[in-house]
Amino acid sequence: MTELHRLEGGHGVAVPLDAGSAIEVVNTFGSQVVDTWALGRSDPSEYLSMAQTRRMLWKLVPALGDELWSNRRAPMLSVEEDTSPGVHDTLFDSCDEWVYASYGCPPGHRSCKANFREALAAAGLERDGVPAPFNLFMNVPVRAELALSLEPPVSRPGDLVRLRALMDVTVVLSACPMDVTPVNGPDLAVRDVHWRVVGPS
Ligand SMILES: [Zn+2]
Q: What residues have their beta carbon closer than 5 A to ion ligand 1?
């Protein structure tokens, strides 16, 4: 088991992951949403696609044992472990400068989209455009009449998701800086999460 790394609440990180290795994302305090992306290492234009994943799984939310698919319909990751109640989101795009502006926040508020770019730049990578993320622990209930709402996470402190790489990828995590809506809990508090790379099984 490798070292557990802290990801500061509101910040992002890019992690190279070889095929066969896995990343564990630990919701240390239970209430933090983690926007999660994967890009192909040999060609970053191949990316983890929520639209393709929904189509390939015939459902809205991947569950334990499911594969997560790329925009080229190739399996990129598998959900190997999930100790949370399994409530995640594939529908909402990541937060950005414009959503904070719409809430009246002053310019400069951190965002998941900016975190994606910053994390890639710190890893020496760049990419045009930010794909829609897999929002770990994000609670977006789909009502009977197909209306959507945004509720606090139902995950618990220490819940973790382990994603196994099925190809060489760069995984990007963003501990979402949203502190206006209750997406990160009813107290609107952004909190640290932790992650670690786990070797081939
Ligand atoms: Zn966010």
A: 95, 112, 176, 178
